[in-house]
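Dear colleague,

Thank you for sharing your sequence with our group. We've completed the structure prediction you requested, and as agreed, I am returning the results in plain text so they can be pasted directly into your records. Please verify that the sequence below matches your submission; if there's any discrepancy, let me know and we will rerun it promptly.
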Amino acid sequence: MYKKGDKVIILDYNDKPLSPAVVAEIEDVIGPDRVRLHLPDNACCLEFTDRFRKIDEAQYEELLHGVRSRETLLAVDLQIDIRKFASRHPRRRKDEIFNIFNQDKHYVSVLNAYAGRVLMYGEENINERFLYEYKDALAGIVRTRTFFHELDDSIPVPDLA
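Please find the predicted structure tokens below.
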């Protein structure tokens, strides 16, 4: 029934497409009822054939574009030892560096939470309060990373505009 290269849409337990839609390509046929799927984020998974439905190439491209538009670049946690970092910059107060570091961690967690909610519910279903927190986190991460970039050129300033 299914063959390698077929394009499919993932179904929920009510046999309806997930919302937001998730598409995949069949990478390998394991048996009559199992296949390995290649997902848009380059992950693979084994799946039973009753958990998805075959779609045509045009519909696959349209839904894949939607998946790509929901993906956002996320800020990465700063992996620095804050004590060593502060000792290299004795002119700055350690508590100032520590406070900005904690703000950065908070902003990163808000950005990650937003990305997770967008993937689960779609961008149009995000409530206004959380959208405000997300926009605040975008501005805040640029502020905190600019501060750290001035102290260490190896820390990039994200372009999240």
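Summary note from our side: The longest strand covers residues 23-29.

Kind regards,
the structure core
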